[in-house]
Please model this.
Amino acid sequence: MERRMLIAGNWKMNGLQSARKEAAALIALQGGNMPGQFDVLICPPATLLADMARDAGSSGLYLGGQDCHSEDHGAHTGDIAAAMLKDAGAGYVIVGHSERRTDYGEGDAQVKAKAEAALVAGLIAIVCVGETLAEREAGQAFAVVGKQVEGSLPVGASAKNCVLAYEPVWAIGTGKVATLEDIASMHAHIRGKLKTAGGAALAAARILYGGSVKPSNAEQIFSMEDVDGGLIGGASLQATDFSAIIDVSKSL
Ligand code: 13P
Model:
């Protein structure tokens, strides 16, 4: 199965109403429509989701949430249900980002439950995994990431409803990028785990790389065998940078 690339922006906790103009500028820079050969996604703060989904109109730009609760409604002050994201115009939701694993102590079981809620709501789950610097230096990177993949995948995961994102924690927001060899070997490792967990139907899931992706390094990273696009933080905030990353991806 041919894997369709996904170029995803994660705005994290950045963006007031005024930031909507960046998405509008991105659409304008792309001539009004996203490229037909791959998918482009922005995950803004939840406060902007509905407006940005309206702004995106028929441009083909997808919107996504950055997290969801594992339950579909109820007494969970401050949380957002996957169905609410869907209702606001999201097609995707990120679960298990390392910042949530660190800030809120989210473990694999909780990430898995959130991913399952995403699937029930009809969203595509972007399941994030990645080792810390200490784990890498201790030679544990493959074991840690393998365990995260096995523990975080939702029941019913397939290439259609799940995307994996490998984000080495030490490469996020630091300007440090994993070497191409490290990315290649980890993505192959994740692909192997997907195959074991769900056979060919899951092994065809997209695996994104995240961690200091920029216009200058995106082409090299995205052109590798088991890399099916990127999850981009800082460089997704400005339309010019994000558009440049989309542009270099068009020839891949
Ligand atoms: P940066 O691209 O800013 O390193 O962030 C990566 C990330 O965490 C995306 O989810």
Summary: Residues 10, 97, 167, 172-173, 210-213, 231-235 surround 1,3-dihydroxyacetonephosphate (CB under 6 Å).
